[in-house]
């Protein structure tokens, strides 16, 4: 694997053709699209804690209902690699722009349908089955969204600003988390918990159709990226990108997947699991638990542009190593912060989301770097979404199980293990190839 084949290489990439889109168009299109996609994705995560256990999995004890709800939550992560392969194929064959529009529609339609679903009380076991199918659709759409949004930014980036441009689509995650948590926070201010369970929970899902319209308008206003246009003009496209990827870039796929492992484990411990822990274990009121999540999303978002600047100045690899070491150290104090009362929860989420912003702001550009243009959409999408399976899909479930059966110390061990694996893969993908 060459220097360009390293998932965390910070070496200067070859100059690309001059972009036809203005920086404002590119960065707006990348961040707006991912914000909408992650809003849809996180609305489900919030509802999976607050309402879905009662509406779609009644008759179980609270812990079993929550675990069942988290199981449907995890379905999306297994759908995401399939979405990455399908949308990645068309993104590398047809173009970034068209594929991004299709991914946005897939995610959006699945989200709106969730808001229209009957509950278990109305149609019985068919209700959770339909919920699972819609969750699969959400994951399938997001599997094709992320890689295209990162490429839309990085393939339009001027020399020396790859990491800065690559962090813009990453801002969609904290913005989506803030908006999804904020919507439920507002709903609980204007209605009772009974009204939320009766009909209010549907509002965020159905209202996302407005955001989808905005996203489509922005996405349709841009032109194809210069790097992909060059691939067309030079006849560099391959017939089956995923076959080419597994034939020539297996090492980059494996290392890239685990370079992102700690990123995903940290985020879902600090968001979906933390929300359930605050509500179900320490008895924090819904509104206060959502306020913790809102704080986390703000801190998360503020850290991303800072690391974007530092990554271009000091190197993605160096900043990723530093951040991963800090995540490993943080795993030792996680049990103390999580078990020392509500005030320490605010400190926990602040530290966790600063670290999350640092790692997440780098990971988009890092995962796209190893792959040539002809397979870059497919390659970056698959590595990101494979990491989602190993690091995110079961993180709330595993953390809930470990805390309930062995104590919070083992949740810290879980995060620490993920940091060690990630750090090892960063060194493997950088030291021997640079």
Automatic annotation (TrEMBL):
This is Metabolite-proton symporter. It is a multi-pass membrane protein. Its main location: membrane. Residues 26-434 form the Major facilitator superfamily (MFS) profile domain. Keywords: Cell membrane, Membrane, Transmembrane, Transmembrane helix, Transport. The chain crosses the membrane at residues 41-59, 65-88, 100-120, 126-152, 164-187, 199-220, 253-274, 286-307, 319-338, 344-369, 381-399, 411-430. It is found in: Cell membrane. SUPFAM superfamilies: MFS general substrate transporter. It comes from Neorhizobium huautlense.
